[in-house]
Amino acid sequence: MTAVPETPAPDAGAGPAVHRLAVAGRGRAGIAHAMAIAQHDACTFAGAFAPRADLRRFARGAGFAAPLEGSLSRLRERAPFDALVVCAPFDSRAGVAADALAAGHDVLVDGLPARTLEGAAPIAALPPDVRARLRCATPSLFHPLLRRGASVLASGVLGTPRTVRASVFVSRVFSHGAPPHGDDVLDFAVGDLLVLLDHVLGPIVRVSGAAQRLYGERIDEAHAELVHANGVVTGLDASWSVPGYPRAAVVIEVEGEAGSLIASDDALEVDLADPAGGMPAGVTRVLPADLPDPLPFDAGEGSRALHAFVASLHGAAVGELAGDRSLRALGVIDGMRRAFASGAAEECGA
């Protein structure tokens, strides 16, 4: 099998520095990020580690010739690297990221760094200047339509938000007697949406609401009211038992003083009373085909986040990757659980 080509290091003085990136985790996400690294002109794939030998064999079978080790320390000995992309399972993700940060590496975590705020304790315990090297990439922040919707909201063309609704639905078929092991809808689907809401509307400081348990003791549906630090209130609905959504479907609806917006994975629709911000009055509708993706298709979804991470290594300010935003989302999830249990509003924060 032909090996996936590694990006060659440039000659001294030939241009911007090429960063050596390693990957923690060799599942599907790890392979996607390794492919994206190998195709990027400004970085090179230094190697990867995964404790499980079968995952290392899987990566080798996929054509990667760089070192594949069972521990971070062993990889560092064999293949020095500048930054680490963490795609490890949730039970080890925060520990791996914290170890790399403490060793002086920049770190990109694929998604949230843990299931809970308590699980992210190894990262939260780091000094602020060390933790500042953490970046987290959740899919909605790099989806072309949702990203365009975030830009529209940030431009202020809608005026002050009056009503905000957000939802996430995904299909997971299971019976009452055989629910999923260890997860519920808050673990599985809500975190990405909370990071997006934090990004476009600001930190969430208080939550209230109720949960429904349809298939046992786990939370299958969540209905919450989220209060942002700027006073905006978002109504959130989440379910993983709605048919027809093989992938998580995220929707944000905002009605402002000067117009409204609906942003989702499928379309972006903006309705303005008057022209503003370079947009015409009336309804403007944007579909995925209207926003061609300039990044390599065959590198998978990791391409956009990896591209932003490399840009940040070269000094660019990439707000979508702010690690503290993901820690705040975990604090909101913990607050939602407390609010569902107490039946009262709960303060939240990381």
Automatic annotation (TrEMBL):
SUPFAM superfamilies: Glyceraldehyde-3-phosphate dehydrogenase-like, C-terminal domain, NAD(P)-binding Rossmann-fold domains. It comes from the Bacteria. Residues 151-261 form the GFO/IDH/MocA-like oxidoreductase domain. It holds the Pfam family GFO_IDH_MocA_C3. This is GFO/IDH/MocA-like oxidoreductase domain-containing protein. It comes from Eiseniibacteriota bacterium.
